[in-house]
């Protein structure tokens, strides 16, 4: 009787929301065998191990046992320094895969590891990881952009496909622009919803009425934009060319929230441009 093939091992550096989600998915689908898990504090590392359902908390980079793959799931500003610190370890394996999940930065952040002969890449799952337990259930069908050296790309595409992702190729040199699109679509949508709710409240509406107004407007706007395209779905004073009303609303916003007024003017100008493109 032949034994099952040994699963590749994965060490996780920075097991926050993304690291926990991917760790649990890969553990449960037996894509990787999770080894060491490191976070900022021993308590959070223990919590990450419990969430993942495998692995062991380690206190430092020096405490990691060698692994086949390393997920560096830390804030963007820390990816380069962590890669450099890992590459400086005397006991660093001769060959391994290292990758990060930043949507804005490329695999060149891992250059110190590439210089040591490692295969490097980045993979960006386009999903909100605000609640890891929910992200685990929502991950199937998630689009995932991958870039890096050929060997790393092939390994990561197989690993992410195995947990339900739909992978596509990214251009490392244009990741900042790509990620800005995701910020507009996701983060700034949330910011604009907050501005809308605050404006409703400032106008005298209670929270229940404000939310009742907001929900159908948002759902219809998004549904129409996805179904018809943004140009065909656009409505409002800027789309109609009502510059007088735009000016009056901007002036009213100036009296309430100058930052919101500035955003209103900029977005109205962009809306007018979109409407003009739709007419041509």
What is the structure about, briefly put?
With 280 residues, the protein is α/β, with parallel strands linked by helices. The chain has helices spanning 17-28, 42-52, 76-87, 111-114, 132-138, 150-162, 175-202, 207-228, 230-233, 237-240, 243-256, 258-279, and strands at 9-13, 33-38, 56-57, 69-72, 97-100, 119-125, 143-148, 166-169. The mean pLDDT is 95.
Structure write-up:
The protein is an alpha/beta fold and 280 residues long. It has 2 domains: 9-170, NAD(P)-binding Rossmann-like Domain (Rossmann fold), CATH 3.40.50; 177-279, ProC-like, C-terminal domain (N-(1-d-carboxylethyl)-l-norvaline Dehydrogenase, domain 2, Orthogonal Bundle), CATH 1.10.1040. The protein is 55% helix and 14% strand. The chain contains 12 helices and 8 strands. It has helices at 17-28, 42-52, 76-87, 111-114, 132-138, 150-162, 175-202, 207-228, 230-233, 237-240, 243-256, 258-279; strands spanning 9-13, 33-38, 56-57, 69-72, 97-100, 119-125, 143-148, 166-169. An 8-stranded mixed sheet has the order 3-2-1-4-5-6-7-8, sandwiched between helices. α1 (17-28) packs parallel to α2 (42-52), α1 crosses α5 (132-138) and α11 (243-256) packs antiparallel against α12 (258-279). The N and C termini lie far apart (70 Å).
Span from first to last CA? 70 Å
Tally of discrete structural domains: 2
Question: What is the CATH-assigned architecture of the largest domain?
Answer: 3-Layer(aba) Sandwich
Most strands sheet? 8 strands, mixed
Mean pLDDT: 95
What top-tier CATH class of the largest domain fits best?
Alpha Beta
**What percent of the residues sit in helical stretches (DSSP H or I)?**
40-55%
> Which blocks of ≥5 consecutive residues have pLDDT under 50?
none
Strand content: 5-15%
Structural class designation:
alpha/beta
Counted by DSSP, the helix tally is 12
Strands, total number: 8
CATH superfamily of the largest domain: NAD(P)-binding Rossmann-like Domain
Order of helices and strands: EHEHEEHEHEHEHEHHHHHH
Shape: elongated
What is the CATH topology assignment of the largest domain? Rossmann fold
Question: How would you write the strand order of the largest sheet?
Answer: 3-2-1-4-5-6-7-8
What Rg is obtained from the alpha carbons, in whole angstroms? 23 Å
